Structure formats: structure tokens, C-alpha cells
Amino acid sequence: MSLSPIELRHTLHKNPELAFNEIKTTKLLIDNIKELETSSKIKIHTPYKTGLLVEYKVNGGNFILFRADIDALPIKEENEIEFKSTNNYMHACGHDVHTSILYSFLSEVLEEKVDQNILFLFQPAEEGGGGAMEFYKTGIFENFNISKAFALHVTDEYKEGTVASTKGVLFASALEIDIHFIGESAHVAFPNEGKNAFNAMRKFLDIIDEQDKKSSEPFIFGIGIYNAGEVRNISPGRAMLSGTARGLSQQKVIDYVENLKVILNKLKEETGVDYSVKFGAHYPEVVVNENLFNDLSKQLSGKYSFIDCGYKMTGEDFGFFSHKFPSFMFWLGSSKGERYGLHNSRFLPPDSVIETGKNIFYDILNLQKG
User: Fold this and answer.
1) Which of 91, 204, 272, 307 lies 20 to 30 Å from 71 when distance is taken between CA atoms?
2) Does residue 363 carry a catalytic annotation?
3) Burial category of 271 from C-beta neighbours within 10 Å (exposed 0-12, middle 13-18, buried 19 and up)
4) Known catalytic residue: 210?
């Protein structure tokens, strides 16, 4: 007997797994999908170590791709609920809800015997590491003629049931950046005998703060981690920061990084502190196809509260798929009055949003068939 969508959500929420480690999550999904009524109509593909692609083929036509992400975050949950996380991780970005929506949608497609070829992607590692690209690189999608792709993301920025999207760039291109400042330690009583890496980092931050204030371009260089020093009476010979650069195109992010290197080289000449830069995942911007937006905004607004929300500086690796196929992604409002925001230890969309998300996917499917 397969779990209900809400039961699945609760199980996922209690047992979150980080990017590329969604082993139990993947098994849970496979086991329950196999138990769905008429599951003989589907094929389950597992070309990557985690995640899965479910193929529903009923004719010789094109496929439509629907995607959900399955990984969690290294955040300790603060909600006191029956299905609270049992480890130090958390579905603080709603991926447990996204997964349950897609699972519910798959179940309904099977029940209704829909006459449309569909791919249901339960994607690993959206939060870091570029799971969309890694899954795509397996070559599995080369077996299907995909005409369109769809995805959603819950948010408590909007009232429950609200659909929000825009034509063109919806979410920013995002690049993970680590910068290491490499100096020489010295006793604080003899600062001239060393090269203070923290001071170099501080000067670097002052420069980019002033530079970013003057920029008219929508851009963010957000930094979440700073480290320097080990002993109170030794000036730090090493310092580092970890952050993310976000702009409205991959090229703008690349251009920004090149400018950072110019600044770092000048600081090296001035302070003698060397540097190294390491890059993590670089997500393309999420681009909503104009024709899909124009059609769906009209059609969905008759049934749901639809908002043209403009671009957001959120990063989302569905952007990779949006550059491969005509795509439509949207925010799904989940708020009942609360507002914590994504990646917050108290972010908790209600179970009721699962049914709403499933219904929207089904409505989109009916509008796109053929």
C-alpha cells in the first residue's frame, strides 16, 4: 500500500537528506511509486546515484517534463511538530512539499489514464552541486523528445494558493564562490613581521561594498561565511569567505567575477597578501518562455490568484532545464499569515498546499496536451 501524498511529505520531512546523499529518499520514492495503482504503465529510470526519472508513455508523441527537487539543507529545525526532523538537517526550502506534489500528480495521471507522454523528474542536489546538470549529463534525456518543462517552488512570501511568475528571467543566475586570502602570521606585538590576511579581506569587502552601491545593475554578492585567525595574540595569516554572486544572466556573473580578480590583484600588490578563488556550482538563470507565460497567465488566472512577480534574485538550478527546453516555472504561495522565508529553521508550508500544487500541475497538463 503506497503512502498518501501527505504521509509521504511527513516521512520525508522527518528524514531529510543532503545533496547527493538522498539514498533513503530515492528508495522511499521508488518503493511507493511501484505501489501506485496501474504502476505497470510507467518505467522508473535511475541513471544517477540518487534521484529518479519516471517515464509515462502512452503514444508516439512528445514528452512534457515536470520536475521536483528532493534534497534538504544543513539546518536544524525549530518547529515543534509531530513530523519534525529527526536529524540536524531540514527541508527548510520546501523540497518535501515539491516532491509530494509531483508524487500526487503522478498518481492522478495514472488514475486518469492521461493521453500525454510525461516525464516526472525527482531531482537530487538542487541546493548545491548542480544536480540538474549532473542528472542531465547521464544522457537519459536523449531518449526522449521533450517539448516543454515545468516546475514550481513554494514560498510564504505569497498567500496560500497564489501563483506567481513572470516572462523572461524569473530567478537569477547564481555562482558559489570561496575566496582564500593567503598572508603570513605574526605575533600581534610585531605586526610588521607578518602579512595580515584578515586586513586584506576587510579591505576587499570595503571596496566591493562601495562598488556595488554605485552599480545600477541588479546584482548581489552575498557572503554567508567569514573565517580568520586561530589564536588571540597571533595576527591571522589566512582568511576566507564563502558567498554567492547573483545576476540576471550567467555572463553578468562571469563579468563580475573577473572584476573581483582585478580587485584582488591590486590588493595583493598593496598588501602582499596572495589569494585563491574556488568556484562551486554555477546555476543558469531561470528563463520563463514568453509564449508559455502569456498563455498560462491568462488561463490560470481564471482559477487562481495569479501575480506577475518580476524577477527574483533567488537561485534555482531548474535554470539548467529552462535553457534546454521551453519552460514555465512559478512560485506557489503557501502562507496562512506567517512569513519566515526560505532556508529558515521555521519555514513550514501547510500540507494543504500539496493538493493545490498537484491541481495546478494537472491544469497545466490539460492546457498543454498535444
Assistant:
1) 307
2) no
3) middle
4) no
